Every structure is written in structure tokens, then in C-alpha cells.
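Subject: Predicted fold for Major facilitator superfamily domain containing 4B, 523 residues

User T.R. writes:
Posting the sequence so we have a shared reference for the thread.
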Amino acid sequence: MGQRLLQPEAPAENEKEPETVAVSQPSDGTGSMLRWFTTVILFSSFLGLGLCVAIIGPTFQDLATNVNRNISSLSFIFVGRAFGYLSGSVIGGVLVDVMNHFLLLGVSMLATTVGLYLVPFCKTAVLLTIMMSVFGTSIGILDTGGNVLILALWGDKGAPHLQALHFCFALGAFLAPLLAKLALGPTVSAENHTESDFHHPALNRSSDADSGVLFGVPNDMTLLWAYAVIGTYMFVVSVILFALFLKNSSKQEKERASAQTSRRAKYHNALLCLLFMFFFFYVGAEVTYGSYVFSFATTHVGMKESEAAGLNSIFWGTFAACRGLAIFFATCLRPGTMIVLSNIGSLTSSLFLVLFDKNPVCLWIATSVYGASMAATFPSGVSWIEQYTTIHGKSAAFFVIGAALGEMAIPAMIGIFQGKYPDLPVVLYASLGASVATGVLFPVMYKLATSPLNRQRKENRKSEDQKALLSSSGLNEYEEENEEEDAEKWNEMDFEVIEMNDTMRHSVIETSGNSLTESTAEI
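User M.O. replies:
I've generated the C-alpha cells; pasting them so everyone works from the same file.
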């Protein structure tokens, strides 16, 4: 019985198994250094990703001038980039399972480099939109592949590294306006233009645009330098990724064939669908608040433009700072715990925003808390789902598409409703509704993910109890058999004693009878 209880248990259906790694496992110090070097290169690529996404905002007016359009008529380039990002997420999800990860990321970053170099030379709005679509496709591939590769490198220990990866993205988005200001000088941001600036065409029409030339030298060379610096940075990172591909390609194919193991949750598809909705509401609320808080503060609260710009900056500042702090929190807190804390913070702050929407002090404090609460949700969600089911390329692409759709749909819907109901704080209602949705979805996901494990543990406990009971019943039967054998032996011994007593009694009687006969004869 002791040997049975000490035997190792069979792994549960959803318990953790060895991770599939896209590069060689660190069996020695060299392998560990290679893994850390690969992680640093991934961080660098996501820093460039943040720069690429955020550089368009500060240079939007210059791009519109370059193609002789006003800002309002050029806003569809964001739609083109969003559709490209969706397409890139789908393509990346398919290719990341069949291609070498380093080759895929290197090609996507090289395509991003080409796009960055060509954007300042576009002289027509149609060509600029097409270039933005291609640009968005390469960014979508990079986003999907980077998340999958960081999970493949670190597995269940990847929560801090995933937080650091997304912190690098936020850091790049923070540095892009500073880089644009250094390159372009103290130009006015597109967000602060007056209504007339949005509808009047650009005054600086170039001869290239008037003649229908597709490519030409930009009107302002500082625009070219802003994009060229980021493009050169992306090119250097892509070269390093190609070098890693040449070093690890043969090892990766062998490991994929021999050491690929994965786990799949019982409700795998349901969990992915719920995570799709979770990221849809989360990313949509994040982009919506960051995009509309400036106009909300000026029109609804009555703040000055400088104060509204500061409110917008404090949202993204606390967002980036807490995403950096989340790297250290992830080393001591589980991803589920961080999601719960983030949900509580976002729900509380958005509720205060709705209740005290006219109070400037509450607006500043609640905006800071809201930005901090939103920081760690996305990387924590990816780390959390990886604990229960292995995330491959198609799975990662699925929830990245959910995030991209939320980024597209929710801000557009809020813009429509805000136009119909200008007196209502529609932006704050959207934030509160998204916080409630994520707060409800996560417990449902947690229940689906952990219920098979709890059932398996109960079954294991029952089987252990049954084994223990069977073992104890076997001992009782053995004792009963021994008692029966002892009783039979004692009965046999009793019978022998009784027979011996009868024999002795008969012999005594015979002896006494013989003695009486002899004495009578003598008389």
C-alpha cells in the first residue's frame, strides 16, 4: 500500500507539460545567452513597432501637405492601416506555424523598413493609403509572431518577459512624438488644429502632386528624416533576425519534429472566443479613451487645450509607467491575479469618471488610475491563457484580430454616438461598459479553464481513497482468514485433548476393573 501511494500520479488533462521551444533549449551557458539575446532582439523589434505606429500622428499634417489634402479627407489612411493590420494578423497566424520564426519576423521588419522609406515620397492619397495598408500588414505579422515567439522561448515563465515586450511597445509610442518634434521642429499637432484647418485644403501644393506623379521628393525634408531614422533602426533589427535565422534554422526543424509537445484545454475553442471578446472590449476602450479624452475635456468639461493635452499625456504616461512596473509585479503575482486587479482598478476609475464627469480634480485622478489599470491587461491575458492551453500562431492571430477589431469598431461607434448626443459623456459610458464586460468575461473564462482540472483532481482523490479502502479491506480479509485458521487449529487441539482424556478414562476404568477381579479371585 505504501508503494502504491508513493507512485507518481498521471498528469491531469490540462496540467502543464513541457513547452515547445522555437529555438534550441539552453542546455548550457551558451544556450542561455542565446535565449536572452533573442529576447532582447524581440524587445528591440517591439520598440520599433511602437515607433512605427505612433509616428503617423505627429506627422499627419505634414503627410497631408505632402499629398495636397486636408486632414479630414486623409483620415481614411488609418482605415487602410487597420485593414492591413487585420490581414497581417491572419497571415502571421498561419505562417508562424509553418515558417521559421526569425525568418518571418525578419521579412516583416524588412517590409516595414521599405514602407517607412517610401511613405514620405508618396504624392497621391491613394498611393499613401496603399502604402499604409502594406505597412499595417507587416506590423500585424510582427505583432502576432513576436507574441508567439516570446511564449515559445520562456513558456510558463514568460509572464515578466511578455510584460517587458509590451512595455517596449509603449515606450516606442512615447518616444515617437519626441523624435518627430526633434526632426520637424515645434510644429502644431494635428489634434490641436482648428475646425477650419480640417476642411480647408493644404496651401502648399507641389507641382509633383498637381501633375499626378506617384513618387517625388517630399516638400519638407525633415519629414523624410523622421521616417528614415525609424526605418534604419528597423533595418538593423531585421538584419540581426536574419542572422539568428541562419544560426538556428537547422536546430529548430529538428526540435519541431522530435520535441514538439503541447497541451489543449477541454474548452479550447470556447476560451479563445471569450478571449477574443475580452480583448475586443479592452483594446477598444483603451484606444477610445486615449483618442477622445482631449476633445471630451475641452467640450464637455471646459478645460483649456493645454490642460486637455496634459490630461491626455497623463493617461498614456501612467499607462507606459505601469506597464514597466508590471514587469516586476509579474515575477511575484500570477497573471490571473494581475487581471483581477486591473479589472477592479478600471471598473472603479471608470465609475468615478461617470459619476463625477464635471469635476476636474476627479477627472485627473481617475484618468491616471484608469491608464495605470489598463497597462498590464493585454500581456497578462496572453500569459494567463498560456497556462491552460498552448498558444500557436493561429490562436494568437485569433485574439489579436479581436483586439484589432475593437480598435477599429468601438472608436468609430463612439464617434457616431458622440455626434448625435453631444451633451452626454459617451466616452465615459463606453469606458464603464467595457470595464463591466471584461469584469464579467474573465470569471467565465477562469471557470471554463479550471473546471476540468478540479474535476480531474476530484477523480484522482476518489481513486486514491478507493485504493486505500481496497488495501485496508484486503488487510481485514487477511486478518479474518488468519483468525479462522487459528480457530480451526484450536478446535483441532481441543478435539485431540478430549480424545486423550477419553482414552485415559477408559484405561483407568480397565485397570481398576482388572485389579478388582484379581482381588476377588484371591479371596
